[in-house]
Write the structure tokens for this entry.
Amino acid sequence: MNLSQIARLQALKKHLEIFQNNHPRLQPFLEAVNREVLKEGSVVEISVTSPEGKTLVTNMKLKKEDLEFIRALHELQSVR
């Protein structure tokens, strides 16, 4: 890993800390999801509403490969 990559990771870590401070209920929610309902076949739905009231919604049914990716991200976060 070169110095540029290390600097990017440090900046990303700072942004993550700010995000977590701005949204303190998200991490406990995601941990509960991971612990209680995250399994193959679960459906994740995401809804975003703009300040003007426009809403976009999508969903996805989780596959085995999706769970492997999510767990790899979780392990990466645990390393910090």
